[in-house]
Write a structure and sequence with these properties.
Elements: E1 7-9, H1 11-18, H2 26-34, E2 38-41, H3 42-53, H4 61-70, E3 73-76, H5 80-87, H6 95-106, E4 110-112, E5 124-125
Length: about 130
């Protein structure tokens, strides 16, 4: 299998990377540290805000924004093309995960995640 050229980060991977949490997988960590471009779906940003506001991670919203603006992260919008790609995915997948997987499909990217729901739907790296 060839290595993907693009990567989409899920919420846990993004927050664990930014907060230096040891739960982050070694492959995902290496990619996040070295990639020149990591795609961040807008739904990941929204989920990250909710997680930070609930104090489930030791990171502030300002730290999140600063990291996103200063690193290789590119926030990608959820538009009608991505919506159509989402409709092609299995309906049993939770809405947020379908949006992340659809974004990965739109950019022919692998998802940096440990969430097993993505397996068989998109390529994953952890």
């Amino acid at each position: 299998m060839t290595e993907p050229e693009s990567y989409v980060v899920d919420t846990h991977a993004l927050l664990w990377f930014l907060s230096k949490d040891r739960k982050l997988g070694s492959q995902a960590k290496a990619i996040l540290e070295s990639a020149t471009e990591i795609l961040v779906p807008t739904i990941v940003m929204a989920e990250a805000v909710t997680t930070i506001e609930k104090r489930r991670v030791s990171l502030s919203i300002n730290e999140l924004l600063h990291a996103i603006e200063d690193a290789a992260f590119v926030v990608v919008p959820f538009g009608s093309d991505t919506f159509r790609a989402m409709l092609e995915l299995p309906s049993g997948i939770e809405l947020h995960d379908r949006m992340i997987a659809a974004t990965a499909n739109m950019y022919d990217a692998a998802v940096l995640t440990r969430d097993p729901i993505f397996r068989g739907v998109v390529e994953t790296v952890w």
